[in-house]
Structure formats: structure tokens, C-alpha cells
Write a structure and sequence with these properties.
This protein is mainly α and about 130 residues long. It has helices at about 5-15, 20-65, 70-75, 80, 85-120.
């Protein structure tokens, strides 16, 4: 539907007597579409942000494992450092837990922002005079 057709449709629906039909139509069409757009955008941003956060945390964690021990571990006797496979498995679990936790926090921020935007569309003003 082009802009001209939409304007003609809007003019056809407009109530010439001014009984408020125009406001009702605007409320029933414009606001739900805006809310749907916000929810769809939040869903897409949420998926992308979660994937990005998990990818970055996993990469950083594996990069640390590849580059070897830090300064303190370099000066620690080898006898104290040799703990077998268990620590590397635990390190992988810690990296995964951190990735999941940060992805959850990212999701929370995205959906709270979407909820505030939806409330703004509905007419609830948060934090404004």
C-alpha cells in the first residue's frame, strides 16, 4: 500500500462529525503495529546480542588457554601446576557458565528496553515530567 493509498484510506475512515472514530482507528491500528515492530526488533536484537556475547566470551576464554599461564603461573614450580585434565575441564565449564550468565544479562537489558518502549507507545511515561 503506497502512502497515497494509505492517506486515502485514512481520510475515508475519518469521521467528519468528530465523534472520535479517527482516534479509535489510530489507536487500534497504529499502536499495535508499533508494538509489534518493537517486539520483533527486540527479538532479533536479543538473538544477535546473545550469540555475540557467547561468542566473545568463549573466544576470550579459549585464547587465554592457548596463550598459556599468566605471570604467577610461570614462576610457580611445575610440581604444583601439574593437576592433569581436571582443571582444563573446569576452566571450560567456567567459561561456559560465564557466557550463559552474560547472555542472560544481555537478554534482560534488551527486553527491559523493549518493555519501556512499548509502555511509551501505549502512553505510559516513565521518568518524564
Amino acid at each position: 500500500m503506497t502512502g497515497i493509498q494509505a492517506a486515502e484510506l485514512h481520510d475515508a475512515v475519518r469521521d467528519p462529525a468528530g465523534s472520535g472514530l479517527d482516534a479509535v482507528v489510530r489507536f487500534l491500528v497504529d499502536k499495535p503495529l508499533a508494538i509489534l515492530g518493537i517486539v520483533v526488533a527486540a527479538f532479533v536484537v536479543n538473538k544477535l546480542a546473545r550469540r555475540l556475547v557467547k561468542l566473545l566470551v568463549r573466544r576470550l576464554g579459549h585464547r587465554r588457554e592457548r596463550h598459556g599461564p599468566g605471570l604467577v603461573r610461570r614462576h610457580t614450580p611445575a610440581v604444583l601446576l601439574d593437576t592433569g585434565e581436571l582443571p582444563s575441564a573446569r576452566a571450560g565449564q567456567r567459561i561456559e557458565a560465564l557466557a550463559v550468565a552474560l547472555a542472560g544479562a544481555t537478554s534482560f537489558v534488551v527486553w527491559v528496553a523493549a518493555a519501556v518502549a512499548v509502555l511509551d507507545v501505549v502512553g505510559v511515561r516513565l521518568g518524564r515530567c
